[in-house]
Amino acid sequence: AERLSPRILVIGSSEEYGYALDDELPITETSPLRPLSPYAVSKVAQDLMGYQYWKSYGLPIVRARGFNHEGPRRGEVFVTSNFARQIAEIEAGLREPVVYVGNLAARRDYSDVRDIVRGYWLLLERGEPGEVYNLCSGRSWAIREILDFFLRHATVSGITVKEDPSRLRPSDVPNLLGDASKIRKALGWEPEIPFEQTLLDTLEYWRRRIKAMGPQGPVIVGCSGGEAG
Predict the structure, then answer these.
(1) Residue 119 CA from chain centroid, whole number
(2) I need a labelling partner for 4 at 20 to 30 A (CA). Which of 64, 103, 129, 201 fits?
(3) Which residues are catalytic?
(4) Which of 200, 212, 222, 221 minimizes the C-alpha distance to 92?
């Protein structure tokens, strides 16, 4: 029987880098790993296990560290989708004109999920086993900038913003700004979809979904903002 030799992609996270100092930005694949959450620690372990199985057993394992990526159908516990849903519910008259937020000062390097998945596929096809690659845009957005973008594109005015303490994290990474030059040089990958388009697509997704739910659609007020939301 023919022996299969599948290639393996271990998908990690920019959260593995955790607390990066200002003079360490942008973050490269050789930057220190200082995870600040149980999720981040689990991703570091997964990443290093992938390396160990390549080094010890020669398995064709490629590792990726995807920075934040967003798009339509994103779970509402994540900050961009959560903001978009709140705006869509306000526009539909399903909640008071207040957007609840967490830490607006945190900065993240955002890309469109469709670009990130394209990068993952390229790594599966042509990534170098044993290597790790950042996937990111090279620009960081403050959460406040994302909120302001949604407020500018809302169809109603007079929306206010209130901090929700339940959305604040015990320790939050202040800035995750990545350097994707390694995968760009190796495979020619870089993001193609402007993040502004990603945000508009996410907002339109929630507008359609809220409309489809009808006037009795659920009103979510206290859910977690996730991802620094």
Answers:
(1) 14
(2) 64
(3) 13, 15, 39
(4) 212
Whether residue 71 contacts residue 201, with contact meaning beta carbons closer than 8 Å, is answered with: yes
What is the model's pTM? 0.87
Give the rounded distance of the alpha carbon of 184 from its chain centre.
19
Q: What is the pLDDT along the chain (229 residues), one digit of tens a residue?
A: 677 788 999 999 999 999 999 999 999 999 999 999 999 999 999 999 999 999 999 999 999 999 999 999 988 889 999 999 999 999 999 999 999 999 999 999 999 999 999 999 999 999 999 999 999 999 999 999 999 999 999 999 999 999 988 877 676 778 999 999 999 999 999 999 999 999 999 999 999 999 998 765 554 433 333 454 4
CA neighbor of 173 nearest in space, from 11, 10, 12, 13: 13
Q: Which of 113, 111, 109, 124 is nearest to 187 (CA)?
A: 124
